[in-house]
Amino acid sequence: MKRTDYLSWDEYFMGIAILSSMRSKDPSTQVGACIVDSDKKILSMGYNGMPRCCSDDEYPWDREGNPLDSKYLFVCHAELNAILNCHGGSVKDAVCYTTLFPCNECAKAIIQSGISEIVYLSDKYSETDSTVASKRMFDSAGVKYRPFDMSGKEIKFGL
Fold first, then answer.
1. Distance CA 42, CA 40 (A)
2. pTM of the model
3. Annotated catalytic residue within 11, 58, 79, 154
4. CA distance linking residue 98 with residue 119, whole number of Å
5. Does residue 117 have an active-site annotation?
6. d(CA 104, CA 123)
7. 79/100 Cα distance (integer angstroms)
8. Is-contact 80 106, C-beta < 8 A?
C-alpha cells in the first residue's frame, strides 16, 4: 500500500519557494519564489537579493534613512528574479509560488510575463498601497491569486 502522507503539489512547490528564500542575505526579509508550468515542472526559482555583479557587501541592507543608503533602490525581488532566471523562455500560463504577496513592481512583471496564478504564503503587507495596487492590477489582468493552504502537515524526512 502506498504512503498517504506525501506532500501535495502546493506543499512541494511552496517548500521550494521557502527553501529558496533561505538563500537571501537580507537581514530583515527573506522571500523566495518558484515558477511552475501546467505539467508541474519547475521553470525557475528566485529570492530577494542584489543584482548580479553588484556585491551584497558593497550595497546597503538598511530599511530606513536616505534612499541611497537603504536596500529598496537596489534589491531585486524574488518574483522578478524568478522571471528573469527562467532559461526555458516563456512563463506564460505558469503558477508562481511566493512566500510574500508580490509588490506592485513585481505584479507588473508577473502580468507582462503571462503568469496566470499566484500562490502566496504571507500577505503581511495587505493594507499597503503597493499590495492594494498589485491586487487591483491582478484583478484587471485576470491573474488569479490565493493563499497557500496551511494544512498543518509537519514536514519530516523519511530517511
1. 7
2. 0.93
3. 79
4. 6
5. no
6. 13
7. 9
8. yes
